[in-house]
Specification:
The chain is built from nine helices and two strands. The protein is mostly helical. The protein has a single domain, classed as Hypothetical protein af1432 (Orthogonal Bundle).
């Protein structure tokens, strides 16, 4: 099985791809998603859950679009209020790619429990069980020659990484990622990531 999608379909799914001005970076982002489409066990990216826990009812694609818009909003406010410069192309690319490995980290589970939403049941794949989240996405960044700053942000966007973000663009991705999750978790009565934060570190 594989997601049957071409570059035009990918741009419809993630319109912000077209906002990347650097042609090589734009092509790299699209190529990574198209490779994942061919490698995964899903038929549609819209059926991949955001995660297999409290957000298993949410679409990964909605999350990625939300994170990208939130991160750009953070960057623009910081630029307007504090004069903080940022690389817009890098920010869009890292947001679009931060969870690109998730379609490979899980797979359809026809016998699994209902998601509680529009998403079909899913389970961890062998990759999801054995490989730390974001490792494969970071690998793809290197294979396609994407900037080191983009690979760094993809690798450090999750607490599962042993490293922390060191660029302002990576910071916007990091906070937008958790804010997007909490915007769904907390109103539904779930425990937000902000309540799980380890203080004093």
């Amino acid at each position: 099985m594989a997601v049957r999608i071409d570059e035009a379909g990918l741009r419809r799914l993630f319109p912000k791809i077209d906002r990347i001005k650097d042609a090589a970076l734009r092509r790299g982002v699209a190529a990574i998603w198209l490779e994942v489409a061919a490698e995964c066990a899903w038929e549609r990216f819209e059926d991949v859950p955001k995660n297999l826990e409290a957000e298993r009812h949410r679409r990964l694609t909605d999350h990625i679009r939300g994170v990208t818009r939130m991160a750009l909003a953070l960057a623009e406010v910081a630029k307007a209020e504090h004069g903080t410069a940022y690389d817009r192309d890098h920010l869009i690319a890292m947001c679009l790619l931060h969870d690109v490995s998730k379609p490979l980290e899980c797979e359809p589970d026809p016998e699994g429990r209902p998601s509680g939403g529009p998403m079909p049941p899913a389970r961890k794949s062998e990759m999801g069980r054995l490989i730390q989240h974001a490792v494969y996405a970071t690998h793809k960044c290197f294979v396609h020659g994407l900037p080191l700053a983009v690979a760094h942000a993809v690798n450090t966007h999750t607490h599962q990484s042993a490293h922390r973000s060191l660029t302002v663009e990576a910071a916007y991705l990091f906070y937008a990622d958790y804010a997007d999750s909490d915007s769904a978790l907390i109103p539904a009565g779930g425990r937000g990531f902000l309540a799980r934060w380890e203080l004093g570190r």
